[in-house]
Amino acid sequence: MDHSMMNHSKPSQPDNGKTASNSKTEKTRILTGNEFALIAVESNQQLSTDVTLPVWTFNNSVPGPEIRVKQGETVKVRLTNRLPEPVTIHWHGIPVPNAMDGIPGVTQNAVQPGQSFTYEFKAEVPGTYWYHSHQDSVNQVDRGLYGAFIVEPKDADKVDRDYTLVLDEWMSSGIPETSNSTGMSEMSGMSGMGHDNMNRGDSENHAESNAAGNDNQPTGMGHNMSMYDLFTVNGKSGPLVDKLPVKQGDKVRIRLINAGYLSHQIHLHGHEFYIAAVDGQPINHPGVVKDNLVRIAPGERYDIEFKANHPGQWLIEDHGANKAVAGMKAVIAYEGADLGPDRPNETANLAAVDMDRYGQAGPSSFTLDQKYTLEYTMNLNTEMKMGGMVYTINGKTFPETEPLNVKKGDTVKVRLINRSMMDDHPMHLHGHFFQVLSKNGQPLQGAPLIKDTLNVRPGEEYIVAFRADNEGNWMFHCHDLHHASAGMVTEVKYTDYKTNFKADPKAGNMPE
Fold it and tell me: Is the whole-model pTM more than 0.85?
């Protein structure tokens, strides 16, 4: 099976004798097996033909290595920190033991410069996931500390080509760092790297850049995302993005992972396709679609599959009014085809696949009318406090937000309501999957939708449900990490769980 354009190799250590001022990143590798070494190190990444930026990396690449393991394997990952700041690794979407979740100050102390930490867990649920730093993550993810994590199922239909596309956004210019108006701490030395340089009190219309300009949302107060002028696929933009070779007749899977802080709307040219999985979880009898957009919010993953039955060179690209979308595209190139690539049409007005009605209804774990052990409501909002913008859950910011207190075995129903005027809130629950039951008061009509990250747009209301089946203290937060760092975080806390972890006040733990 041809997994991607990435190089297959065993874990290797980059040349860490180099300094960030002169080192250059390597090509992202695919690592297989069950024991891995990840080294956090500084480097420089060429993002486009004319932009090279300082980055923080795992194993000297952005994205970091794509880790592929088999379902049921026990995985060990040794993280070594050779950066000037503490780091951790969170396994986004993977139901790991709580002590392995990588949350500084909650499940572990941040790994200090020069130190190591070994993560160990069993990869029991197959699917497309990713990993990233959760220490000062609003800044560290922005600098490049992320990578794909694929759990291959024991029994599954084989595909001929299996590609992973990690989506992200960058600032191409070095804007001087500004103070954080919320009073949250910011990392130094982040010039030109992204979200941390924004003034969260800016009245710039977030909707204009959110979803890359695709979604018409109400205007109002919001944080300025317009500094993003460079969108990337696997750390590259425009002509630097690797082509995706296929042969006629191939069954092709493309795994889309959004590691950025904006939603993107992805269009596959020239082919019918179906959405095989969302957040790693399979869709029951997915329907075939063509010329529809796949809307993918921060933290989400969508696996699409298609039959390579239309020879030529075809684009898979982002859509929107923001001119930066032009860089977020890859070419699907048929081997032996001498036709030139088709034309981009990133401004075309195409409908997005409606996941509320997609696929066929089938057996599900939860219903709207069953009795639940606990019910919670989370009102998500944007407020001005002490001269700065904060993002609240039920009017409070973390750590003052009220946790969802559960016991093992509880069934939990959560109502998520976005009362922000213009900000999307992609809500991510650690350690668990939840089922989406309704949107805006209407039950879902399609396949059971099982997720760990759900985008709640302004004015929307969702009801989700999960079973408390993984003991620990777990984060539940917005994955626009500016919103998380400015307050939109709570926890799911098992009241009958006792942890041996003790936070070190000298560790500099920054969970968001």
Answer: yes
